[in-house]
Write a structure and sequence with these properties.
single chain, alpha+beta, globular, 351 residues, two-stranded antiparallel sheet, ten-stranded antiparallel β-sheet
């Protein structure tokens, strides 16, 4: 499931929704950052700190208190590039000495995703508890699980196995043979096990046939994210290289906020997409301490349904199988949460 590519191909001229309304804490943070000592206001400016970026990117305001005191420290503004570079340093330091994960051709990589949408949006019935994933803090009265994918990718690229729970029903395991010539997942593991420089990572991916050609920063952003999104259990060193490469892409933004649906603090990495390019803004959600990938969040810029009305329950294929189709409601948030990748010996197995 490549949500970012799907969204990027849809065009829309609707205005961007007011994100301050969705996350009021962000505005309070920015107001606090803009206030100087003694309550006066001042103009804050910043510049890109990482080499290679062609324009300024969004900054993060970092606030704190002195030990043993309630007095706030002077706010510190950093560019998104500087934050991503520092994240990379911390990931590398925490993972120093760890061997790069490996995937044998006869092994399987389990990739698990959960789609969450606002309750009441006509998108079909929610999943029953028997096949819903455990999502701590999720208020099922306002947001519900619409789809839960458990997909096992064989390392040699010949087969996939999956349970795709959707349409209000629980699925059973089925195995599918892949077309010849499919890129094996082991190719990504072999690639990630080698050292790469941030400034040449995208070119290295393209030469290895693991990334498409790019003509603009938005393409670079999406292609650099793919190793993290496709189900690669990456080493700390490779993950750090990806973040350093992202720091050099013009238009990348970073912000810390409390996600109102997940009910916890998250670090958000996003891209300043032109308003006409997509129907929803797609954010990458990370744990603010470990920087582990939690998933993606789309904030709809407009309401989108099928021709003649919204897509709802009862939509099926010609064979009668349920179909999950995304319906966007302007201003609402939609999530694709991702579990940690597991390396197992057979399809259907979990650790």
């Amino acid at each position: 499931m490549d949500e970012m590519t799907t969204l990027s191909t849809m065009r829309d001229d609707a205005p961007r929704p007011d994100r301050a309304r969705l996350t009021p804490g962000r505005q309070r943070l920015l107001d606090a950052a803009a206030a100087g000592p003694g309550g006066g206001r001042r103009v804050l400016t910043w510049k890109v700190l990482a080499p290679g970026a062609a324009a300024a990117v969004a900054a993060v305001a970092v606030l704190g208190t002195q030990a043993g005191s309630d007095t706030p420290r002077e706010p510190r503004l950093e560019s998104a590039a500087a934050v991503l570079d520092r994240m990379a340093d911390q990931i590398e330091e925490a993972g120093r000495g760890q061997a790069a994960p490996t995937l044998r051709p006869d092994q399987w990589a389990l990739r698990e995703t959960v789609d969450i949408a606002p309750a009441g949006v006509p998108q079909g019935p929610a999943l029953p508890a028997a096949c819903a994933a455990h999502v701590p803090g999720l208020d099922s009265s306002t947001y519900v699980q619409m789809r839960h994918d458990e997909v096992w990718h064989k390392g040699d690229g010949t087969r996939n196995a999956a349970k795709v729970h959707l349409g209000g029903t629980c699925d059973t395991l089925h195995v599918v043979d892949l077309p010849s010539g499919s890129k094996p997942l082991t190719a990504y593991y072999a690639f990630a096990a080698k050292p790469h420089k941030p400034q040449s990572l995208l070119a290295d991916l393209q030469r290895a046939g693991l990334a498409g050609q790019t003509s603009k920063p938005a393409d670079e952003y999406r292609e650099l994210l793919q190793p993290l999104l496709i189900g690669l259990k990456a080493s700390p060193s490779f993950t750090a290289t990806v973040y350093r490469a992202l720091a050099r892409v013009e238009g990348v933004r970073v912000a810390d906020e409390r996600d109102p649906v997940l009910g916890k603090e998250v670090r958000v990495v996003s891209f300043a997409t032109p308003k006409r390019a997509v129907v929803a803004d797609e954010d990458l959600l990370l744990d603010p301490v470990t920087y582990r990938l939690l998933g993606t969040r789309a904030i709809a810029r407009k309401s989108v349904g099928a021709e003649g009305g919204a897509l709802g329950s009862g939509t099926t294929t010609k064979d009668g199988d349920p179909v999950y189709l995304r319906v966007f409601q302007e201003g609402a948030m939609y999530y694709v949460l991702k579990g940690d990748v597991q390396i197992v010996d057979r399809p259907g197995q979990r650790r």
